[in-house]
Amino acid sequence: MKVYFHYSLEGFSNGYLVGNEKTGEAVIIDPGTMNRELLAHIENNHFMIDAVLVTHNHKSHHRGLETLLKIYSPRVYAADSELNGQKTVLLQGDGTFAAAGFAVRYFAAPGHSPDSLMYQIENVLFTGDALSSGRLGETNNVYGKRNLVTHLKNKLLSQNDDIVIMPGHGPPSTVGAERLFNCELMQAEVEEPVERKENFRLIEVERF
Amino acid sequence: MTYSGSMFSVYQGIPAAGLFDILRTSEFIHSIDFSGLEFSDADYSGKTFVGCRFSRSTFTRVRLDRCHFRMCFFDFARFSSCSLTGSDIQFSSFAGVQINDTSFENSDLLHDNFNGLLAGHTSFNDSDLYNSRFVMATLKDTSFQNCNLKKTMFLQTNRDKVSFKSSNTREAIFGKGENPE
Fold first, then answer.
1. What pLDDT sits at residue A192?
2. Domain that holds residue A163
3. Which of A68, A168, A186, B95 has its CA 20 to 30 Å from the CA of residue A133?
4. A134–B136: do the CB atoms touch at under 8 Å?
């Protein structure tokens, strides 16, 4: 397996080209941009792009898809049935599928966005925006954060310390490092949401 | 920017003596797992490492000046009295590393993970630390003078006698109440 890191200045996001030297195929994870540099890497290595794996439906992670699909004809995997008007192979929950000769594991990790996925190929986990080194993905509310932490504890921290993490933003990491130095994951004692029922009643009273 | 790296799975299982031979004789080293090895009183300056792993290795009085590292993992390694001056280290991880009396001066340290770093008497002066992270790092007698700190993250760091003189700290990311000076 050969991994190429591709940094997009539009959105400061990380994309990855993962090549299988045995089959000559490759997958692209989060094509934030599709430029000459990435194209040169694909062509110079004679990779056939078998699939595009999108971690979540934010522009900075799939802006390059349109250009990519003009050149290649890969299957596009995501937790949304459509991206930029392009039909995808819809992934839900956790599971495994085959792409570029790899067994690709996927894990739902909602919280940063409802459609967030993490992909694992061999000993590398591509976390998208669910987690970056030392930090959790941004969430809009306490429920989202709690949901994200639960998924990360069950699906990321349950893995071997040596598993490499390639995030959607920032530098790479390992599961062992995140276990010890992810300040937000350690502070996972998320405050209980304010008693919602009572709040709703108050709003209703005010309204009527 | 695009970098390549086979993920240190290709040459696993080489005996330590063979690994030292590769390190001594090769200028371009890729996909090798050097985890747990002890390096001392050696000069590996000018070499290029891609997709290599040095987890829990120890480096004592080792010169790695002008070396290139891409997608290399030094997690929980120890550096003592080493020199990485003028090095080019990108998209690599130094998480949980202990560094003492070591110089990273005049280096490109882009997209690097220094989370949980324990650094003492260490200099990053005149370096580019764009998009690198120092979350939960403990820094003592460490200097970041005349550095590019754009998007460099210092969250929950313990700092004692740390200098950011002539560096663009306004473009860095500090935690609430964690004043850079």
1. 46
2. 2-207
3. A68
4. yes
